[in-house]
Amino acid sequence: MSKSSVMKIKRVNAVKVENFHQSLYQQADNLFSNYIPLKISQLDNLLKVSLID
């Protein structure tokens, strides 16, 4: 059985990691909430137009 190791980090670095985590979460949330649905809609419209022509 392996032991998990505890890593001590400075408060300044912990804040940087937390800020990075929040930024990454916000970017992923925007990607999945806005960008991908928009692209799906655009592709759907493109397919509809190409089927009509």
TrEMBL record:
InterPro entries: PA28_N_sf, Proteasome_activ_PA28_N, Proteasome_activ_sf
Record SUPFAM superfamilies: Proteasome activator (SSF47216)
One Pfam family, short name: PA28_N
Species per Swiss-Prot/TrEMBL record: Oncorhynchus mykiss (Rainbow trout)
Residues of the Proteasome activator PA28 N-terminal domain: 13-50
Name this polypeptide is given: Proteasome activator PA28 N-terminal domain-containing protein
Coiled coil location: none
Cellular component GO terms, alphabetical: proteasome activator complex
